[in-house]
Specification:
The chain is mostly helical and 320 residues long. It contains eleven helices and no strands.
Length: 320
Amino acid sequence: MLKIFSFASGRLPLKMQNRKQHKEQNKQHAIERRALRVERNVKHSVKRNLTRKNSGVLGVSVMLEGLMAKLKSFLFAWMFPCIIFCVWLVIAHFEWIPSQILPAPSLVASTFTDLWASGELQGHIGISLQRVMSGFGVGALTGLLLGTAMGLSPTLKDYVYPIFKLYSQVPMLGWLPLLIMLVGIDEALKIILISKGAFVPVTLNTYKGLQGVPSIYIEVARVYRFTKWQLLKKVVFPSALPPIWMGLRHGLTHAWLALVAVELLASSEGLGFLMVYGRQLYQLDVVLVAVVIVGGIGLIFDKLLSVAETYLLRWRHDAF
């Protein structure tokens, strides 16, 4: 009777009213959740765009800081040479020192142009480069072999290392009288002395690099059951490569210095001979040209090896 009366009176039963209210509430909650989701997505996209912009700005700022640091280091590196050159210009202009002792930069530049135009300078440079490459090749190869042997064989190291240390303590020019008696003053003397200059630093750095491989690397390789060849190829030599390469850089520098010293003492060709020739004729402009060429070639050698080191050791990361 109540149900019939409710329908007849146009009112719904209580349960149906509750269901209708729940449906409306669910729809309202769904709309609110959808609105919250849209709002959250909008906030997330805005935040992501801001993060990208900030990261881009941060990357640009970091790049600018790096460029400024490189520019600052470049300016500091060349500041002192520029000061010396300016002092040289002032002294030459006011003739505070006679031109026979300190020629003007313009005279040095003119002498360089004349020597280059005549082809004489290229000939001396070519001979010196040929000598240093030959001597450095011999010294670096023997140094790598001996350093590797001492680094991998403790028994060989015990026998050879004391003799090597004794040999390395004798200056290069200390071997000159003995070598002149044995091989004369021809090219063999120059190659031997230049190779000695490269041999010592390459051997020492190779030996120290192999000895300095962390023991934990060896233990991990043994856990993975590496063979001896895999251990050397994947663990030992990659770990020792930075000091070995540093030894090669020092070896080339010492070989270049040894070349100039040998050509100053016993040579009739090369940049060292050009210095001696200019000094004997009291042409200090020729001497300064040879000095600038020697310094420039040495700097180029070091920069080339630095670029090669950066490429070969690009897998390294800075600790900080």
